[in-house]
Design brief:
Layout lengths: L4 H4 L26 H17 L3 H13 L3 H29 L1 H20 L4 H29 L3 H32 L4 H20 L13 H20 L8 H21 L9 H5 L1 H31 L4 H7 L1 H22 L1 H19 L8 H28 L7 H35 L6 H33 L6 H10 L1
Helix pairs in contact: 2-6, 2-7, 2-8, 3-4, 3-7, 4-5, 4-6, 4-9, 4-17, 5-6, 5-8, 6-17, 7-13, 7-14, 7-16, 9-10, 9-17, 12-15, 12-16, 12-17, 12-18, 14-15, 14-16, 15-16, 15-18, 16-17, 17-18
């Protein structure tokens, strides 16, 4: 057991002992009476990172009109963030293990705030893209540091379950919150406030982090695996870049398949190297545990299906039902409420009683059913009767998935691997989201093009083609979750996770 100050979340002078306050004891013997405030700080930081994946989508038309960039260049506002964030997450997680989680967490917040201010004040397209890439870079430092801080702060199994239930709900609902907040800011203020708003989030999280988190570097710091870092960073970059290009290039273009092939080869080389490296960036013991491996795959598949649905259901609500950006965001709130409720119930009652094997597959099945239900939408559907019911079902299902997978993906890892294990959670979801969005976009566009062949263009035909594209996206999203049902049903161990019980015994 690692007993360094950083591993326990305490500094040598920061260990407190306040008997009777119900605080969870650390391995080092201290108690942290502010752990729930720390959860709030971490939650704010995580919400800022996750919602930035969608908040700018709402602002894009206004930004394009203001800065005068082309439709072809528009995707780079989203892609620049995804490329930097997705490709650097594993490095960011290991940097947190090396330098100390508080230091990296605060540095990530400050850098994210500066990048957001730069993007908000951007005078041209180039500066905006650069700022978005910087946001992704600092987000890659911030996200794994936040999750590993949560892992090392909450060590009691019951409290850890509550904390991860809340955190999972925030991570899953961030995309919908981004749509709502982006709509409000764009409609009532200006598109630039979709970036400036991060300064408020960051300021609150920095103040809380500086006050509540304990500093210090870990004593048993692992050495940085430079070859592994290079292989996985470039490999993930190529994967995300290749799928991003599928939106603007056909699948036969080298800019699509070429980068995908290179990325797969580099990730294969990374796996080979990690089996031989003296100090691997991602120790294979982290991912080869069945429950953790299943959790990473659950995050990947649900990320692939979920982000695409946010995109296409947003199109449907705005283009077919003629909702404003603000009302579109409000329309997702019942789904968010179901996710929060489901996450808390899952981590506090279902997983401690039943284990993950029935819970996550059930979540996958419910979400797949919700996605399949959305395929029945047509030009005459209404929100209350046809959109809301499948949204509620999908929200419950996603809560079952995220809360459980995020908890088990970091449970039982050695303290000096907490950062990289946490990074794998974010990497799985981010790369899954990039692949899902690009793939669903490509398939939906093809479906609309095929529908329009041989038909005279008219507003009605165009609307019907759009519905065909949305239905195709929803079917493929349902397929992602159906695959997730099979994968998690096979991989998760039956019964209550031993790692949670072991953690509890080790820290009691």
């Amino acid at each position: 057991m690692d007993r360094s100050p950083e591993s326990t979340g305490t500094s040598s002078e920061g260990i407190r002992d306040t008997p009777g306050d119900g605080a969870t004891p650390y391995a080092g013997g201290g108690k942290h009476e502010h752990r729930w405030l720390i959860l709030a700080v971490i939650g704010i930081a995580q919400l800022m990172v996750v919602l930035d994946a969608t908040i700018v989508n709402i602002a894009l038309p206004s930004a394009q009109k203001d800065l005068g960039f082309s439709d072809g260049n528009r995707q780079w506002i989203v892609t620049a963030y995804a490329l930097a964030f997705g490709s650097l997450l594993l490095l960011g997680g290991r940097v947190a293990d090396l330098m100390g989680r508080k230091a990296v967490f605060i540095a990530g917040l400050i850098g994210f705030a500066v990048a957001s201010a730069l993007g908000g004040a951007a005078p041209n397209f180039g500066v905006l893209v650069f700022a978005r890439a910087l946001q992704g870079l600092f987000g890659a430092l911030l996200a794994p540091a936040a999750l590993s801080l949560l892992t090392t702060t909450f060590t009691d199994p019951r409290e850890r379950a509550k904390a991860f239930g809340i955190y999972g709900a925030i991570a899953g609902a961030g995309g919908a919150v981004g749509l709502l907040l982006g709509g409000i800011l764009t409609e009532y203020l200006d598109w630039r406030w979709c970036l400036y708003v991060n300064l408020l989030f960051a300021a609150v999280a920095i103040a809380g982090g500086m006050r509540l988190l304990h500093g210090g570097r870990p004593k048993d710091r692992p050495e940085l695996d430079v070859p592994g870092t290079a292989l996985v960073t470039v490999g993930l970059f190529c994967i995300v870049y290749g799928f991003s290009n599928a939106e603007s290039h056909h699948w036969g273009s080298f800019l699509t398949w070429g980068f995908l092939v290179i990325g797969v080869l580099l990730l294969a080389a990374f796996t080979w190297w990690e089996m031989r490296a003296p100090h691997p960036l991602l120790p294979l013991r982290v991912v080869l545990d069945r429950d953790r491996g299943a959790s990473y795959l659950a995050m990947f598949l649900s990320g692939a299906g979920m982000f695409g649905v946010f995109l296409f259901l947003t199109y449907y609500l705005q283009q077919i039902l003629a909702y404003s950006p603000v009302i579109t965001g409000v329309a997702f709130l019942p789904m968010v409420a179901c996710m929060v409720f489901s996450s808390v119930v899952t981590t506090n009652y279902l997983v401690p009683t039943l284990g993950p094997k029935p819970v996550v597959p059930l979540g996958m099945a419910l979400t797949a059913g919700g996605m399949a239900w959305l395929t029945a939408l047509d030009l005459h559907s209404t929100y209350a009767a046809h959109v809301l019911p499948p949204l509620l079902i999908a929200g419950i299902g996603l809560g079952l998935i995220f809360a459980t997978a995020m908890n088990l993906a970091t449970a039982g890892v050695e303290t000096h691997d907490a950062g990289v294990a946490s990074a794998m959670v974010n990497t799985s979801q981010q790369v899954g989201g990039s692949i899902g969005t690009a793939l669903l976009n490509s398939l939906a566009t093809s479906a609309a093009t095929h529908y329009l062949k041989g038909k005279k263009p008219s507003p009605l035909v165009q609307a019907e083609a759009s519905m065909q594209s949305y239905s195709t996206a929803f079917w493929w999203s349902a397929l992602f979750f159906a695959i997730g049902f099979v994968v998690t049903l096979v991989l998760y161990r039956p019964g209550v996770p031993k790692s949670a019980a072991t953690d509890g015994a080790a820290h009691m």
